[in-house]
Amino acid sequence: MAGTVVFDLDGTLADTSADLIAAANACFAARGIDVALDPVADALTAFHGGRAMLRAGYGRMGSGMLLPPGAEDEDFPRLLSHYGENIAVHTKLYPGVEETLDRLQADGHILAVCTNKPGALAEALLDALGVRGRFASMIAADTLPVRKPDPRPYHAAVERAGGRVASSFLVGDTETDRKTATAAGVKVALVSFGPEGEGISRLAPDALIAHFEELPELARLWLG
Ligand SMILES: O=C(O)COP(=O)(O)O
Ligand SMILES: [Mg+2]
């Protein structure tokens, strides 16, 4: 019996860190803040989203610099707009993603995306990477009034894809994904090829995957 495999986007399907960081750095430059996040060292922060990157940058400002009130709320839309215009300059699918999606579909599984990226950006990115058509549904940060780790976006991703939550699991990369799966009552596989490496096992995922090639076997085990 086939089931539904739900994927997180940033840090799971695609390494978006360099383009996300470039967008944050453009905001710091526009403000005259002499701070730049590093695409490799700060990748973990990038996978926690735009606001996390802005806060990290502000936190590294010299003590002589003052941030005006509301700076983050002003910079966030600026970051999103810069990012939207440069969404797939450096971004790539992780190794084996396309072959694995092929395999999962050939095994009869339904594929879905549940991301905390704004919907327009998530659509644009999946299109640019040539994989939008693989996913029967895509629930983003602004599709519903709530986002991950609330379980509702996950449930909606499975249901809108035509699947059943009881026969589904999540593939993700952060604590948000771990919490989402727990709240949704499903298993989670966390990837260990991200910036935290095998350290991500601290979140006690039901499985740790070092490569996408491991997923079809896991799907057979968990979904039948
Ligand atoms: O953009 C974010 O906040 C994270 O996006 P993700 O849920 O696809 O990892
Ligand atoms: Mg992620």
Give the total of beta strands.
8
CATH architecture heading of the largest domain:
3-Layer(aba) Sandwich
Ligands (ions, cofactors included): 2-phosphoglycolic acid, magnesium ion
How much strand? 5-15%
Number of domains: 2
Q: What order do the helices and strands follow?
A: EEHHHHEHEHEHEHEEH
What structural class do helix, strand and pairing data support?
A: alpha/beta
What's the name of the CATH homologous superfamily of the largest domain?
HAD superfamily/HAD-like
Number of helices: 9
Mean pLDDT: 96
Strand order of the largest sheet: 5-4-1-6-7-8
How are the secondary structure elements laid out?
Elements: E1 4-7, E2 14-15, H1 17-30, H2 43-46, H3 50-59, H4 71-85, E3 92-93, H5 97-106, E4 110-114, H6 119-128, E5 137-139, H7 151-160, E6 168-172, H8 175-184, E7 187-191, E8 207-209, H9 215-223
Parallel strand pairs: 1-4, 1-6, 4-5, 6-7, 7-8
Antiparallel strand pairs: 2-3
Helix pairs in contact: 1-3, 1-4, 3-4, 7-8
Magnesium ion binds next to loops.
